[in-house]
What we know:
Distance between the termini: 60 Å
Strand content: under 5%
Oligomer: single chain
Amino acid sequence: MTKTQRMLAAIALAGAAAGLAAPAASAAPTAPLTLPDLPSAAPGMPAGAQPASVQEIGSKLSEGANQLNALMELPDKLSPVIAPAEPVLGLAGGLE
């Protein structure tokens, strides 16, 4: 066995020992998970600005992620439009 193999074996053995010890350490009862309090609207905000539930916050985040995904796909959708002018634009960029 080389020195590197011995070191890797020692690290693996330590990780396995820690993995076996972890269930025993976490045998204590845990507190139930609770949802955080909803944020309150700042003064002067419109009435609909404050979310009514955590699910509403999640849906807004999901909607924003979908919009971001659509924005990330925009260059792929524009490539057929830009491709014919790409040689000219490439030359213009080299004239700086």
